[in-house]
Specification:
Length: 86
């Protein structure tokens, strides 16, 4: 379910607001925050619940979530801008 909902969240919380503001940097920043918080929620919950969950895994995964969240909306924003202005 995550793989279906995550892109929808990025569209709703990063791509569409950035498109309304006509700002690629807004897409990146909102996506980065969305990715950071969604991955942090998952990783920190696992760290609190699972005995063998290591901190390094959480840190790396949260950074990855932020990078993924920041890069994907930029691509989505660029595609939407190109498709909607042609």
């Amino acid at each position: 379910m995550f793989d279906l909902l995550y892109p929808l969240g990025l569209i709703a919380f990063a791509v569409l607001p950035a498109h309304a503001a006509a700002s690629a940097s807004r897409a990146v920043m909102l996506g980065l925050l969305f990715g950071f918080f969604t991955y942090a929620t998952y990783d920190l919950a696992n760290q609190a619940i699972l005995r063998n969950w290591i901190t390094t895994l959480s840190v790396v995964d949260i950074v990855w979530g932020g990078l993924l969240g920041g890069g994907s909306p930029y691509c989505g924003y660029s595609a939407a801008r190109h498709l909607l202005t042609v």
